[in-house]
Amino acid sequence: MSTQLTPQMQTQLAQLRDIHLPQPIGWWPLAPGWWALIALVCVLSVVALVWSRMRRRTARFLALRELEAIKPDRQEEFLAQISSLLRRVARRRSAGADVLTGEAWSAFLMQGKYGMSSNSATLLATGPYGPPANENFEPEALRAETATWIRRNG
């Protein structure tokens, strides 16, 4: 084999170029499929947020409507019904709140910035189970305070 190149081979060799690799694929701009996925995630997030707010507002509205339907005929029954309603509302707020009793239930109702007054919370914790509290019992004031608690904590 001869290592001598003919002039024709030398001209062809001179015309050869090095292999040029394509530019590396960048991560930006994103492909249309990624834009669609991002849009879908955003839409689903907004729908989930709106759905949860609607459920919460509906539950609060139903609780307030049920509160208005409670008749203050007998004090013990009135207090028991309000306490039961508050337990159902509290269950939505925190998991174990509906099983609290006595001082723990009273403390739960008083906790936080929008808690009930200590008199109302104690009355709701002990009133349904004991003798009538006192002659100064005002069912409409308790109903108003309960409605405020439901609006702010429900």
Automatic annotation (TrEMBL):
Spans traversing the lipid bilayer: 33-51
Entries under InterPro entries matching the protein: DUF4381
Superkingdom of origin: Bacteria
Record keywords, A-Z: Membrane, Transmembrane, Transmembrane helix
Pfam families: DUF4381
Name by which UniProt lists this protein: DUF4381 domain-containing protein
Organism whose genome encodes this protein: Agrobacterium larrymoorei
